[in-house]
Write a structure and sequence with these properties.
81% of the residues lie in helices and 0% in strands. The chain has 453 residues and is mainly alpha-helical. The longest helix has 35 residues, at 3-37.
Length: 453
């Protein structure tokens, strides 16, 4: 990899690192936010999901903007927006303000991940793309997993507010590197962004999520809950119908005719729903039920981080040679076994015997899965569409996480006590297993297909 390639990869990693770092820190900060600002379990869910609603709805628009205006322009706007909203969250005087600021941060976050991945896929050829995506996966996943530890230290030693200012330095460094990036942007002139589709998607998702979160609190027969659910479903259905007929759709339905694209997104739905459920449940359970400090709750995920950082790049190269199917099948099944082992958690609680083995298996399975999954989905589309393909895959992942976090109270049966944690662990294991089965049935190895044809 030459100097230009290394700079492109560094920018892509740092831009995504910012988004993943913040979205992971928020989980470990939830108990402290609840204690400081109030809001209960529903408030915790909204702090997570306000970000995911706008991210999931607008990440598709961001993918189109990336293809239209160029990756570097979109990245720059996203980084500045993320910086401003991070400061706003840190200064939040109440839970409502924090939720609104998180929603605005989701808009900025939507601009970062698709453009950073598209920057990699357009700069690197086939020979280096798998290795580059593997390095991106290792770094960004490491950020997502080590963030609870970093956030925990800030929360225990200072305040949860300081945890949201961690990304100021990486944003500044990324903006400086981006300014000197010489690689040309890939643009698709003449495209338009459908704002009506954007509104239908955002309001539809928001209505469904509101019903799922507030239904457990207000009751499923409450008129407000029923109305929000009905309106959300109708608006999101309207979004899908509009996308089928739009001249410049933000969700190109034709992409779903590509086997590895649709199969990869089905696997993404199950795997990332399981990851979101596990990430929320583990850190909240460790602090609110097992009595861990925020720092020790963050340390709990460190073994997963170590495994991913050490092996993701190597797995990316193996998947380039062998094909993604076996990795995308075995990886989620290993994670399913890891989640099942979390069912051994009991009273008295012993992290080393009851949780560590499962967390290590989660790290192994995640390492086997993420890089091949990303390569399979992005490698299945033609040149010039990487931005929207990355955006769709990321939107699927975020919406899957959004919906499952909205359902946590329902899955746990109330709160994340020991019984509730067992229920979430069982649901997580089922979702991971479904992801492995979906990959085995749907994914095809590109090399094998080429050879057969």
């Amino acid at each position: 990899m030459d100097a230009s390639g290394r700079r492109v990869l560094t920018v892509a990693i740092l831009a995504s690192f910012v988004a993943f770092l913040d979205s992971s820190i928020v989980n470990v900060a939830l108990p402290a936010i609840r204690a400081d600002l109030g809001g209960g379990l529903a408030g915790q869910q909204w702090v997570v999901n306000a970000y995911l609603v706008t991210l999931g709805a607008l990440i598709l628009v961001a993918g189109s903007l990336s293809d239209l205006y160029g990756r570097k322009v979109v990245l720059r706007v996203g980084l500045i927006g993320f910086l401003v909203t991070s400061v706003a969250i840190a200064a939040a005087p109440g839970i409502a303000f924090a939720i609104v600021a998180r929603a605005l941060q989701g808009i900025a976050g939507a601009l970062l991940v698709p453009s950073s991945l598209a920057l990699i896929t357009t700069h690197f050829g086939d020979a280096m793309r798998g290795r580059a995506i593997g390095a991106w996966t290792a770094a960004t996943s490491g950020a997502m997993l080590v963030a609870p530890l970093i956030g925990g230290l800030f929360i225990d030693l200072a305040s949860w507010r300081w945890a949201f200012l961690i990304n100021v330095l990486p944003i500044a460094v990324t903006l400086w590197l981006l300014a000197g990036l010489e690689t040309p942007d890939v643009r698709r002139p003449g495209a338009r962004v459908d704002l009506i589709s954007c509104a239908l998607c955002a309001l539809g998702l928001g209505g469904v999520v509101f019903a799922l979160i507030e239904g457990s609190r207000l009751g499923w027969g409450d008129p407000l809950v029923l109305a929000a659910l009905a309106i959300g479903v109708v608006l999101f259905a309207g979004f899908l119908l509009r996308e089928r007929r739009a001249r410049e759709p933000i969700l190109p339905m034709d992409l779903f005719r590509i086997r590895n694209f649709w199969a990869g997104n089905v696997a993404t739905t199950f795997v990332y729903a399981a990851l979101a459920l596990n990430g929320f449940a583990v850190v909240v359970f460790l602090q609110e039920t097992a009595g861990f400090t925020a720092t020790f709750a963050g340390l709990a995920s460190l073994p997963t981080t170590v495994v991913m950082v050490l092996a993701s790049s190597r797995v990316g190269r193996w998947a380039d040679r062998i094909g993604p199917r076996p990795f995308m099948t075995i990886g989620p099944l290993v994670m399913s076994l890891g989640a099942a082992l979390l069912l051994t958690a009991g009273d008295p609680f012993d992290y080393w015997l009851q949780m560590l083995p499962g967390i290590v298996l989660l790290g192994v399975g995640l390492t086997l899965t993420v890089s091949p999954l990303t390569s399979a989905v992005l490698g299945s589309v033609g040149t010039g569409h990487e931005g929207i393909a990355s955006a769709v895959n990321n939107a699927v992942a975020r919406v899957a996480g959004l919906l499952v976090v909205a359902m946590i109270a329902m899955i746990a049966g109330g709160d994340l006590d020991l019984d509730g944690f067992h229920r979430t662990a069982a649901a997580t294991a089922v979702l991971f297993a479904a992801g492995g089965i979906a990959s085995w049935l749907g994914i095809r190895n590109p090399h094998a297909v080429s050879a057969a044809s």
